[in-house]
Design a protein that fits this description.
InterPro entries: Bact_response_regulator (IPR050595), CheY-like_superfamily (IPR011006), Sig_transdc_resp-reg_receiver (IPR001789). The chain is α/β, with parallel strands linked by helices and 152 residues long. The chain has six helices and five strands; from the N terminus they run αβαβαβαβαβα.
């Protein structure tokens, strides 16, 4: 430490440690679709870009992951991709329940092979990021996912 230094070496080191951005866990994408092949395909497309995914076969399973498993397993879900046509809790109901939960701000993308204008309007009222029709354009999906997760 010279006469001009305001901070000691120990203080400078402590300040540097505080100023460094903490290692944040990588955000994952939760993919919800009752079609196993569709879930796996979306997961593989994202995995090729290094994006980690968690999958669920139903709206109920997705809600459990978002509410319970995320806390217990320390999963950081940063985006939800869901199909519309599923069993008891379909895609729109899943989105409604997410919007009424502590995860209300979670970005959501709908990927569906069977949708009409009424579904698209309902989805937009629930503040989804986008509504993609199957078969999806992988580059469009990747661009949306990267944007929402803040990946360059």
């Amino acid at each position: 430490m010279s006469d001009r230094d305001i901070l000691s070496d120990a203080e400078r080191e402590a300040l540097s440690a505080v100023m460094l951005e903490p290692d944040l866990p990588q955000q994952r994408v939760l993919i919800v679709d009752d079609d196993k092949d569709a879930r796996e395909l979306l997961s593989k497309i994202l995995a090729l870009e290094g994006i980690r995914c968690v999958t669920a076969a139903s709206g109920e399973a997705a809600l459990k992951i978002l509410v319970t498993d995320a806390e217990i397993k320390k999963l950081t879900i940063g985006l939800l991709i869901t199909d519309l046509r599923m069993g008891h809790v379909d895609g729109l109901e899943l989105i409604r329940q997410v919007r009424e939960s502590v995860r209300a701000a979670l970005p959501i993308i709908i990927v569906s092979g069977d949708a009409d204008v009424k579904d698209a309007i309902a989805a937009m009222h629930l503040s989804v990021v986008d509504f993609l029709l199957k078969p999806i354009d992988a580059s469009q999906l990747l661009a949306l996912v990267k944007h929402e997760l803040g990946i360059k």
